[in-house]
C-alpha cells in the first residue's frame, strides 16, 4: 500500500470521472425504468379526459389539448345515446353502472373481510395457543393446500354452489352476494400470518391471565387481538383489495345481463368488451381509460394511505405472483 | 406451577368455522378435481338427454357424480387433453411466458433494486414510483396497455409512426401480441420483486461493502461476489413465486385484449394459457369439467416439478 491513491491528483481525477460516469448510468437507468412504470398511469389519467376527436387524431398528444373533458366520466355511467336513421334512440355505448359496482364490491368486500377476520382469528388462536391432538398435522395439511392452483377450487366450488344452492348467476341480489362471499370467508394464508403474530406474544402474559382467572376467550379478546392489531389491519386491507381485484370467480358466478350485480373488475370487462375495436368518431377509447381510472384511483389512494400496512404483508407473501 | 391443559373442546369450537368452510371450499375441491380427472367423458350439467334416453328406454351406460355424468373410469380426459390443439397452444404460450418473462422481470427488478439502494438523492420518489403497480387492478391496467398499443389510436403506434400495426387488435400476430403481454407482465411484476429485493438489500451487513471498498474491488465484482450471494435466498423465493404466478397467467391476457377472450376478435385463442384452457370448459356446452380437471392436474404437476427442480438446484448456490 505504498501508492498514495487519494493524494495523486491524476488518479483522483480519474476516480472522480469514473464515479460520475457510473452515477450517470445508475440515474439514467432508474429514470428510464421509472418512466416505463409511470407512463401507463399518466396515459390512463390524461387520456381519460381527452375528447374523442383528440383520441382519433393522427397527432401524438400526451397531455390533453384544450379543455379537459370531465364529462367522459358521466358518459361512462349514463352511456351514449345515439339516434339511427329512422329516428330511434339506441345506446351506442351501454351505460356501466359504476355506482352499483362500487356498492357491490364494498358490500362483498366488507362481509368477506369480516368473515375472514373472525374465522382466521379463531383458527390462529387455536393453532398458536391451544393444545390439542393433531395440531401440527392439521396445520401442515392446511398449509399444503396453498400449493394447489386456484382453478381447482373454482371448478368444484361452482359445481357445489350450483348443485346445492341457487346462487350461481342468480337474479336475486342477495343470492348473488352469497355466491361471491361464502367461498372466501376463510383463508389459509391469513391464518398462517396471524398465527405467526400470535406466537410472538409471550407465554407469561397467558399464564398471568390464567392466574387472574381470565378465560381463554377473554384473553383472546382483551390481550391477543389488541396486540396483533397491526397484523389484523394488514389483513383487512389486503382482503378488501383482494375483493376489489377479484375477477375470475365473479365472472363465473354473476349474471352479466344484470349489470347492477357485477363487481368492479368483472364489470369493467363486461362493460368494455370489444371497446378497443370501435373506430373513428365512435371510438370509446377515452371512456375505456376513464373506466380504468375509476377502478385504479381508489386503489392508489388506499396504497398511499396504508403503505406501511400493505408492505408489511409483502414480506410474507404477495397478493400478486 | 401452572400447566397447559389439553383443551381439545375449545380448539374444536375455535377451529370449527374455518374447518367447515375449508372442507367445503378447499379440501373437497382438491378431492373432487382428482376424481373428476379420472372419470371418462365427465360432463357437469345434467341435460335433457337423460330424460329422453329414459323415455326411449336407451340403456343407461353412464354413472353419475356430483351433478354430472361419466361413461367410465380411466385416463381418457388426459388423452383428450393432449389431443386438443388448444391445450398444446396453451402449453406453448404458458411455457413462453414463464421462461421468458420471469427471468427478464427478476433481472430487471434486481438491477433496479441495486441501483435504488446505491443512490441517496430522490430515492424516496423513485421508490414510490416503483411500488405503484403493486396494488393495481390487473384488468384495468390491462385495458390501459390495450389502449397504449391500440392499432390506430395507441401512444406507441402514434409515437413511432406505426399506425396500422396491429398489436392486440384484430389481425395481430402471435409475436406482437406476446410482446405486449410480456411488457405488461414485466410492468406488473416489477413492484413486488423490487419491494422484496430492497428489504433484502437493506438487511445485508454494511461491513462487507466497506471491506470491499478498502480493497478497491470493482463494482461488478462486488455485485457478483457480495450482493448476489447474500441476496440468494430472496432471489430463490422470488423466482419460485414468480414461476408459480406465471404458470397461472389468466386475467392479464383477458385485460390486454379487451375482448373478454384470450385473443383479438377473429382469433380469440391466440394467447390462451393453461388456466385459460381450464376455464374455457365453462364455455363449452355441457361443461366437460373432466377435461378441465385433468388440465389443472397437469398444471399442478408441472408447478410441483419445476419447484422441486428449483429447490434442488438452489441447494448448490443459495447461501442462508
How are the secondary structure elements laid out?
The complex is a heterodimer of chains A (321) and B (320).
Chain A lengths: L8 H39 L4 H5 L14 H8 L1 E4 L5 E5 L4 H31 L6 H10 L5 H15 L8 H9 L6 H12 L3 H9 L4 H12 L1 H17 L2 H6 L10 H9 L12 H21 L1 H8 L7
Antiparallel strand pairs in A: 1-2
Chain B lengths: L7 H30 L1 E2 L7 H8 L7 E3 L2 E3 L1 E2 L2 H8 L1 H34 L4 H9 L6 H11 L6 H5 L14 H29 L3 H9 L4 H29 L3 H7 L16 H7 L8 H29 L3
Antiparallel strand pairs in B: 1-4, 2-3
Helix pairs in contact in B: 1-13, 3-13, 4-8, 4-10, 4-12, 6-11, 8-10, 10-13, 12-13
Write out key terms for the chains shown.
heterodimer, A: 321 residues, mainly alpha, MetI-like fold, two-stranded antiparallel sheet, 15 helices, 66% helix, disordered C terminus, B: 320 residues, 2 domains, two-stranded antiparallel ribbon, 4 strands, globular
Can you characterise this structure?
Chain A has 321 residues and is mainly alpha-helical. Chain A has 2 domains: 9-93, no CATH class; 98-273, MetI-like fold. Chain A is 66% helix and 3% strand. Chain A has a two-stranded antiparallel ribbon. The two termini of chain A are 50 Å apart. Residues 317-321 of chain A have low confidence and may be disordered. Chain B is mainly alpha-helical. Chain B is 67% helix and 3% strand. Chain B has helices spanning 8-37, 48-55, 76-83, 85-118, 123-131, 138-148, 155-159, 174-202, 206-214, 219-247, 251-257, 274-280, 289-317; strands at residues 39-40, 63-65, 68-70, 72-73. The radius of gyration of chain B is 25 Å and the shape is globular.
Amino acid at each position: 500500500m505504498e501508492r498514495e491513491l487519494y493524494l495523486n491528483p491524476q488518479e483522483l481525477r480519474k476516480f472522480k470521472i469514473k464515479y460520475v460516469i457510473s452515477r450517470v448510468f445508475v440515474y439514467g437507468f432508474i429514470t428510464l425504468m421509472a418512466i416505463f412504470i409511470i407512463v401507463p398511469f399518466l396515459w390512463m389519467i390524461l387520456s381519460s379526459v381527452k375528447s374523442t376527436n383528440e383520441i382519433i387524431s393522427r397527432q401524438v398528444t400526451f397531455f390533453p389539448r384544450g379543455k379537459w373533458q370531465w364529462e367522459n366520466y358521466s358518459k361512462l355511467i349514463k352511456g351514449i345515446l345515439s339516434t339511427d336513421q329512422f329516428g330511434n334512440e339506441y345506446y351506442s355505448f351501454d351505460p356501466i353502472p359504476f355506482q352499483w359496482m362500487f356498492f357491490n364490491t364494498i358490500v362483498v368486500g366488507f362481509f368477506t373481510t369480516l368473515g375472514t377476520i373472525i374465522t382466521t382469528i379463531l383458527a390462529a388462536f387455536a393453532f398458536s395457543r391451544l393444545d390439542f391432538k393433531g395440531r401440527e398435522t392439521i396445520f401442515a395439511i392446511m398449509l399444503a393446500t396453498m400449493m394447489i392452483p386456484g382453478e381447482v377450487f373454482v371448478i368444484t366450488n361452482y359445481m357445489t354452489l350450483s348443485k346445492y344452492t341457487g346462487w350461481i348467476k342468480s337474479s336475486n341480489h342477495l343470492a348473488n352476494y352469497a355466491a361471491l362471499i361464502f367461498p372466501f370467508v376463510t383463508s389459509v394464508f391469513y391464518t398462517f400470518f396471524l398465527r405467526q403474530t400470535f406466537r410472538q406474544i409471550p407465554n407469561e402474559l397467558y399464564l398471568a391471565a390464567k392466574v387472574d382467572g381470565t378465560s381463554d376467550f377473554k384473553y383472546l379478546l382483551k390481550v391477543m387481538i389488541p396486540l396483533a392489531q397491526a397484523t389484523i389491519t394488514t389483513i383487512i386491507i389486503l382482503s378488501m383489495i383482494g375483493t376489489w381485484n377479484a375477477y375470475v370467480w365473479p365472472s363465473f358466478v354473476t349474471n352479466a345481463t344484470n349489470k347492477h350485480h357485477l363487481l368492479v373488475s368483472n364489470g369493467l370487462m363486461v362493460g368494455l368488451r370489444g371497446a378497443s375495436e370501435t373506430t373513428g368518431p365512435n371510438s370509446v377509447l377515452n371512456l375505456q381509460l376513464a373506466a380504468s381510472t375509476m377502478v385504479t384511483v381508489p386503489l392508489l389512494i388506499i396504497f398511499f394511505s396504508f403503505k406501511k400496512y400493505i408492505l408489511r404483508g409483502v414480506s410474507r407473501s404477495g397478493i400478486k405472483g | 406451577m401452572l400447566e397447559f391443559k389439553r383443551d381439545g373442546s375449545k380448539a374444536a369450537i375455535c377451529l370449527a368455522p374455518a374447518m367447515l368452510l375449508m372442507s367445503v371450499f378447499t379440501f373437497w375441491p382438491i378431492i373432487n378435481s382428482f376424481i373428476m380427472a379420472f372419470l371418462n367423458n365427465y360432463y357437469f350439467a345434467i341435460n335433457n338427454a337423460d330424460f329422453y334416453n329414459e323415455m326411449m328406454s336407451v340403456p343407461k351406460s353412464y354413472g353419475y357424480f356430483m351433478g354430472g355424468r361419466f361413461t367410465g373410469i380411466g385416463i381418457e380426459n388426459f388423452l383428450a387433453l393432449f389431443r386438443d390443439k388448444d391445450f398444446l397452444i396453451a402449453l406453448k404460450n404458458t411455457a413462453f411466458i414463464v421462461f421468458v418473462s420471469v427471468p427478464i422481470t427478476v433481472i430487471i427488478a434486481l438491477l433496479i433494486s441495486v441501483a435504488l439502494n446505491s443512490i441517496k438523492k430522490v430515492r424516496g420518489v423513485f421508490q414510490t414510483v416503483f411500488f405503484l403497480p403493486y396494488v393495481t387492478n390487473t384488468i384495468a391496467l390491462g385495458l390501459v396497455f390495450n389502449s397504449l398499443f391500440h392499432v390506430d389510436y395507441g401512444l406507441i403506434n402514434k409515437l413511432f409512426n406505426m399506425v396500422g400495426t396491429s398489436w392486440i387488435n384484430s389481425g395481430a400476430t402471435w409475436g406482437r401480441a406476446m410482446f405486449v403481454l410480456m411488457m405488461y407482465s414485466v410492468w406488473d411484476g416489477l413492484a413486488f420483486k423490487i419491494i422484496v429485493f430492497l428489504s433484502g438489500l437493506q438487511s445485508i451487513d454494511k461491513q462487507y461493502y466497506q471491506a470491499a471498498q478498502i480493497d478497491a474491488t470493482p463494482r461488478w465484482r462486488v455485485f457478483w461476489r457480495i450482493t448476489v450471494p447474500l441476496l440468494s435466498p430472496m432471489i430463490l423465493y422470488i423466482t419460485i413465486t414468480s414461476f408459480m404466478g406465471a404458470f397461472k397467467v389468466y386475467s392479464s391476457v383477458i385485460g390486454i385484449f379487451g375482448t373478454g377472450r384470450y385473443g383479438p376478435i377473429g382469433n380469440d385463442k391466440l394467447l390462451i394459457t393453461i388456466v385459460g384452457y381450464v376455464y374455457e370448459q365453462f364455455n363449452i356446452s355441457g361443461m366437460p369439467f373432466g377435461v378441465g380437471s385433468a388440465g389443472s392436474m397437469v398444471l399442478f404437476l408441472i408447478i410441483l416439478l419445476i419447484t422441486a427442480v428449483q429447490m434442488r438446484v438452489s441447494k448448490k448456490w443459495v447461501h442462508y
